[in-house]
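Changelog note: in this version the structure field was regenerated for every chain. One regenerated record is shown below for reference.
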Amino acid sequence: MALLGLDLGGTDTKIVVSARAGAPSVRQAAVAARSGDTRAVRAFDEAAQWIAMGIANVITLLNPTVVFLGGGVIGSGNLLLPRIRAAVPEDAHFVDESSYAIIVGSLGRWAGAIGAAEAARDSLPGEPRDAPKRDQVALPDNSSAG
């Protein structure tokens, strides 16, 4: 099984979503979109289309069975994930839609930092003996986008 993780919490993504929505942060853009603000809704639609296009390209090239999405922006939940899932098959023409799943990872906005730390640990010579695994580390609340 091939896995792919994407961190959607980068500064660029946050700036684009909040700027297009006319809001100072992704969190405020999400609040505006949920209340029906058309500019904010369009910002999330556009972000979902671009993210979906990137995911479709990676799925077409690498054929992962699971794509994990993480980072602060994906914390917007229902504003992005359903749109991304609907748009990916439109761009991944040569891949059977049932051959992959797109899910939100449980690490939220800490996904990139934890992945980098694990990669650094794994690159050390010898066997990492007592290094804690992800499920053994207590993380702060990552439910907020921003």
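Spot check on this record: Confidence is low (pLDDT under 50) at residues 142-146. The chain has five helices and three strands.
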